[in-house]
Structures are given as C-alpha cells and as structure tokens.
Amino acid sequence: VSQLIDEEFGCEVSDLFSYLSPEPIAAASLAEVYEGRLKSTDERVAVKLQYIDLQDRFTGDMLTIRMILYAIGRIFPKFEFSWMIDSVKSNLERELDFKLEGENAEQCYAQLSPHLKYIYVPKVFWEYTTKRVLVMEYIDGIKISDTKKLQEANLPLNEVDTKLVEAMAFQIFHSGFVHADPHVFFSFYSCRICIHFFLNLAR
User: What is the distance between the alpha carbons of residues 180 and 197, in angstroms, rounded to a whole number?
Assistant: First the structure.
C-alpha cells in the first residue's frame, strides 16, 4: 500500500488519509479495496488500490501469449488467431485504468439518475484518483443477492427486483451504456439501488 501511494502521489499514506483500514475489505483479480477517511475533509471513502506488480505482469503475459500464438501459427498455418491478442490487449488496458472507471461511473450516473431517481453512484474523488488508485465515496449497503439481509432490513424483494430490471433495461434499450457486472449492485436507504465497479461497461 505504502509503495503504491508513494509511486502515484509521491507522499505517505498518512498525508492523504487520516485512517486506512489495515486489511482490505474486498479483493478481486485487479485490486484490493480499503476503507479510509480523507485527511483533508474526514469524509469516509473506499480506496481501490491496484496490485503493485499488475502492470508488469500484464506486459509479460501479453508478450507470452503473442509468442505462443506466433509459434502455433508457424506450425499450423491455418491457425490464424493472432488478431485476437490485439483485441484482448486493448480491453485489458482499459480495465487497468482506474481513471476510466471513474469516468464510467460519472457517465452511468448522468444517464440514469434523471430517469431513475432511485439509482445512486458513489462520488469520485478525482484529486485522489490515478490510473492505479480510485477513491470513491463509501456507501454502506446490502448486496442484492443477499435476500436474507434485505428482508431483515425490511426491503421488499419484489421492489428491489423491479428496480434492478428497470435499471438494466434502461441501459440496454435507451442509453446503450451497459453495466456488465450487475452482481455488484447494492440496495440501501429505502430501497435505492447503488451501483459500484465500473470497469466492465459495454457500449
């Protein structure tokens, strides 16, 4: 954590955050997420930090795949899939850019919120966001797949389902900017739907 913050901002963790959880509260293939508080405003935030060696591993993996496809093509001339690596490389490069994820979040909210008032997207703190670090407003909520907790919170499942379907349908049939990972949708505050994770959006 300290190394990544130093590489991206040229300072210590304590210069940016008055608190950063000692362990990640979530983790995936590209990054870990920590709970924190901004030193400047004391706002509660979610801090997404890309794995420190991910960029290097990505470059090496792409080179390895390209060499394998080239070798297969030499042995089997009719095997022509070298075009695939350029497409994969382009898509993965976009996923490794957390500034793009922040832009996707704002675009998604701008398109949905005027029509679906129950949709919420956490605020992006751009002054703390880079290609490898994304800082967003921290939102407490319940995963839409956790039906037991939704019921315990007195959130009607049929209303949550309806709102989720409406949100997805609007993206597919109206905006054309579609969130491709709906498992990261949350419900909170009187059955509002909060959307997280904006790397996989299809146009």
Answer: 10
